[in-house]
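ingest -> validate -> predict -> emit
validate: passed (alphabet ok, no gaps, 355 aa)
predict: started
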Amino acid sequence: MDFGYVGLTPDTNRKKRKTWIFNMKLSYSRLDYYEKVFNQRVETFIQCHINAFEYFGGIPEYVKIDNLKAAVLQANFYEPVYQAMYKNFADYYDFKIMPCRIYSPNDKGKVESGIKYVKGNFFCGRVFKDGNDTDRQLKNWMENKCNARVHGTTRKIPKEIFISEEKSKLKKLPLERFKFSKVGSRIVYHDCHVFIDYNYYSVPFEYVGKEVDIEITKNTVKIFYGNKEISVHSIIEGRGNFSTINSHYPKYKVFSDTEYQEKYQVKMAQIGPFSEQIFFRIIQENPNDWNRTVQGIISLVKSFSKNIVELSCKRALAYSAHKYQTIKNICNNGSYLMPAEFSFEEDDNHEYSQN
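emit:
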């Protein structure tokens, strides 16, 4: 199977859009399935497979694919890293993925000729009223022209060979269609969380600042990095709520025991990493009376830029200070512009201390 770009065609609202044609060809009979699409997202890629399998009335044992980003994240013929959802889909429909070798155009010659054929035969010179009209004409062409012609290589009619010899060899379709999950990507915040559907889910701290992939099903959020599953959470309801696994924090950060604290941690992290460090210092020093100090620091952004508040927190940390009034004074007197060098080292209690 493959995608091929065919230019601009109208959608259902008659707006011209970039259009690709999906083609899956059965290797023995040369029976073709074609479908127009307006993107090459993973969900579209999988839905085209489902539609093709249902058109054929069964599933082949192998599907040979080009090295599309939608399916293969790393073009390595011997150990390909498959996009998680596509791999789950292949397992569900019980077919094996066979990626084409890079720089080996003959590996997909049959389907590439199919793309050339539909572009030069169906799309050449036709006029379409809208997207539905394109679909109707494509289906009619596929049934009465493409699959009913004498094939140029086999010298046989694909539809006849499929019915008489190939269809019985296909695997049965599953009783239920594959259920899609939502996919996407997120950047991990400094507080070791990602923001998904108005809520926050924790990720191990070593992935802070990195882009991770997410997969959302009906009840579960799965988070991946480099195709490795790094975090799993149950879906939480409402907005602004947190699902936190404490082991995801480095040891020096495990001071936020309540969602209330975590909300303020996010606000401090939004100012900057040194402001977040101040937050943890305040929690460590005053676990039962921290909120007024934190609220005061956050309120400073009403009078000063986030950058000034962040630099002031950095200077306060350099001198082991974390009082609201101290940080406010640094903002006012401009000493945040002065050098403030320090480092974090791990002490005997495995917590981070300043030198």
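The radius of gyration is 29 Å.
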